[in-house]
Model the fold of this input.
Amino acid sequence: MLGVFITKLCVFLVLLPFLVEAKVADNVCLLQLMPCPEKVTLKTGHFYFKQQLNIYIEGMSDKRQQAALTGSTTQLSRLEYFDFKHFNIVASQEKADIAIIVQNKMASQKQSGANYRHPSLGDDESYQLTISQELIFIQTNTEFGVMHALTTLVQLIYAADENVHKSDTHLKAVLTTLELPQLLIEDKPEYRWRGLLIDSVRHFIPISDIKRQLDGMAAAKLNVFHWHLNDDQGWRIESKHYPKLHLMASDNLYYTHEEIKGVVAYASLLGIRVVPELDVPGHASAIAVAYPEFIAEKKSYAMERQWGVFEPVLDVSDAKVYQFIEDLVAEFTLLFPDNYMHIGGDEVNPKQWLNNDNIKRLMLNKNLANSDDLHHYFNAKVQDILTKYQRKMVGWDEIYHPHLPKDIVIQSWRGLESLNKFANSGYQGVLSTGFYIDQPQYSAYHYRNNPKTNIDIEASASQSTISPNTGDDKNTHYRTWELTIPRLKGSAVKGNFTLITRIDGNKDRQLSGYLKLNDNAFQKVSIHAPVTTLSSKILVFSLDSWMGPLRFELDFPKPFISSQTSLTNNTLTTATPRNNRLFIGNAFYPLIAHELKNPAPQNVPLAPQLKPNNTKNILGGEATLWSELVTQNNIDIRTWPRLFVIAERLWSKPQINNLDNMYQRLFFIDRYSEIILGLKHKEQQRKGFSALLNDHNTDENIHALMHLGKLIEPAHYYTRHHIKHQLGQYHQLAALDDFVDFLAVESFEIIELTNFIEAYQKGNKSVLSNIKLKVKAWQENQIILNRIVIQSSISSSFKALIKDVEVFNHTAEHIVGFCSNKVLNPKHTFAQLSQQLQQRQEQQNETVIAAIPLFQTLLTSCQVANK
Done:
């Protein structure tokens, strides 16, 4: 709840002086920091932070010292109530208010004695931050630890600035001091590789926008910028050796060498590595436009405007192709100093390979049985080129082959099952599944996504399968369903669900379920609606998957055949419609389920676990921002503040996992990102809504759309992508300027409403008044929205959404009235209200009314309570 968030924040900061030697709880971060530090000890007393402070620095290079001071000064100058002036550098620690000591053995003990160097994998990023009554003391082993310590300090200062305002909302005077708590923070990252991929190809992202994301990354303690620079739809980097790449295949939207060097230098100062991606041998349509002679099928090619996977692939039999790659690698090494280079390697369509006579002869001569062997042959040759230029290979899952050296890094888009396989084979891996921020997803989903989740703690006793008792165990029952999930684009997802019911001596039923999707192994699900009888009801279970958080609602009939059922191919199907549904995050998908007739008990193979001695091979994770639906006008909306949640998962200990606490801090970070870091997620939303209104972009109308945006969320998973494909709008030239393009991924108002309804279910009836106030505000806002529909030339889909919201508002009003008065209007029965909600919830649009399932829960709770 936003009100609760603010209250808890204020109360906590007020209580700081009285918390003596307090330490972080097992799964909660006590301070309003993100990422949460490893260890915090709070002490009695304060440090008074003044407008001008003396600072002593020892062991930092001149360049990074200047960057650190400039960056911190800029951020502190943006405080709303405290008027910070500047730091004064002093020559001795005795004169300092802030002392920074880098204990670098390679540096002299002079103030600026260290040599500047670029960040690299494995750098010591730890730091110790002590705030006492007289001194702020930062002690680290490297400059990179200093940067992280200063980031933490700025967050603490902003929290103190906000706390003063919350304590006195009428404050008008400019503050000249701030009280910081005395404390000790000892901190270091959980993972060495904490990154963000930005796709500059599908939609070009200007340099200024890239640098702003780097500012946010540094504040979130991320340390890898993975730059996706070529794909089917464009080539985005100047090439001296092959100029037709940027002249013919970029639409004149590319980065010059000087611009690239500027970004690399900027990132380096912030402690961020830049890992470039040269995507080969597939995703080669742009290369084909400029140099068709390097493609397996020799012909002329036009620029690819559609989104998807296409046929052009490099001719792996041609020696000139390897010279082409080597020349590009040589260029890249002059621009990107990092030791790692990404080669892509994913989604290779082998059609052109298998139709090329030269390639077929190569396969015969080299004894290559199939296209996978051919792909490995190519990767091995590219690996040799990278080694020649002192670079290590990074690539997606498809590059894996046991003959490649163990120092390569495999980035997994296929998930933990794939990642654990690589790690158990001795290869280093980085997880991206579950961190796709181009997809709208709940922050909670990202927060649960730990790259080391499935660890085999006791290897000798671990289970690789669930083995049913095949004897005469009359207390254990098995039921299995075949599942089909039709998608709006592409093939359906297929699966199997096995439900195991065990009845103990007290006749209590214990349920467990295991789900398999496509070619993945079985995983244990969470069952939310335990079945206590064999009568038909809805079984609800959930699982986090590569698609997002899945919530299955499975019609659960009696397990026997009656006259109303029919048998088909050993499955049990009902003649009446079933209430099967699936939600991928907030998006509805139909679910087809067929129960197998009397399935014989069988082993259920589980996903492979990560062996404890191989956890060192999991380097970390990387969020990915693919840009089919992302432009320079909404990149911040898609990225922030959500990326802080992923950053915490990769920096902080896995024990810090309390979702309520995470959301409280995320609300704080949302404002911090905008005010202190200068990120533009809120500005971009306001500008987008203003442009949508054309000549009617008054403050009142813009505010109405922003208020509506608190109730609406973009549909999760690839729902938007697939709908655009159906509408013929899934391409590079399609406009991305509608209401949904400027929506925040997740609504804090919905989070607050969720907490209200959970409190109501637990017996706190007073929160119903808070829910009433929200419904009233929505209805008042609807008056302005209806006027906008008449006055403005908004899209038909947006008009339809506004109409749906109006109907929902009326339904919500009736539900709140029912809960208050304990009686329904005769015109609105429980079934009618429930049906109205369900009809709107089961629409597949680019947007969803995020409050619908909450009011369905409220309606059911009130019905039960009123009975």
